[in-house]
């Protein structure tokens, strides 16, 4: 006996999400059927809107409805410092501390030789171009995660950018080795920005 087509399709859709197997997808599909119709409509609309109305900022790579994003467009922010992060969620975690007032650059990944990810596979070229064009930027803080790939990326950026006369620093330890920026608590993040070390 097979499920009716609409629920079979819904189960199939849920299995496309990361970490969701057939069993969980089936449970979510039946849960969806039990939800109020208004909630389901709103859920479906938010899925479509998230995909249709969002883009990446052409300057920093942040997710945004407008290009440039609100951070890049905010002239009251410190225009001399760029904090480089792996993912948009890292930017959000640091932004939510309210303690950092400079600009960002989102790499959308890290260097990972084992996974075959080189400098051309992440958002590094646009960072270099940005730094060349914008002479106000004097310091680059590398806020990649405290694991082997994050460290390798930080070293690469340091070697690439220091010869251009930029100060390159690394978020301080206090972020436990192997930890992810977006899971760190606010106090730890604030301390890691304040206590950043030169590379
Ligand atoms: Zn931006």
UniProtKB/TrEMBL annotation:
The record's listing under InterPro entries reads: DNA_Rcmb_RecR (IPR000093), Rcmb_RecR (IPR023627), Rcmb_RecR_Znf (IPR015967), TOPRIM_dom (IPR006171), TOPRIM_RecR (IPR034137)
Q: Which organism is it from?
A: Weissella soli
Q: Spell out the protein name for this chain.
A: Recombination protein RecR
What's in the keyword line of the UniProt record? DNA damage, DNA recombination, DNA repair, Metal-binding, Zinc, Zinc-finger
Q: Which domain of life is it from?
A: Bacteria
Q: Where are the zinc fingers (C4-type)?
A: 57-72
SUPFAM superfamilies, A to Z: Recombination protein RecR
Q: Which SMART domains match?
A: TOPRIM
Q: Does the keyword Hydrolase apply?
A: no
